Amino acid sequence: MECMKSVTVQCPYCGVLNEEMIDCSAELPEEYVEDCEVCCSPMLIRIFSVEGGMPVVEAHRENE
Ligand SMILES: [Zn+2]
Fold this sequence. Notes:
3-stranded antiparallel β-sheet
């Protein structure tokens, strides 16, 4: 079953907060690349786990 959650992640390049829709039902850990809404740099989004219904997410620079 799909379970989409909205979380905010901080862009590792410009520091702005981006809103991301995370699918909690995905197999974790998962990572994908998403461009920052402001500086358009490729953020590597890592979803570690889902705790209390909220995904634990970190954004890193690509290739880091
Ligand atoms: Zn940015």
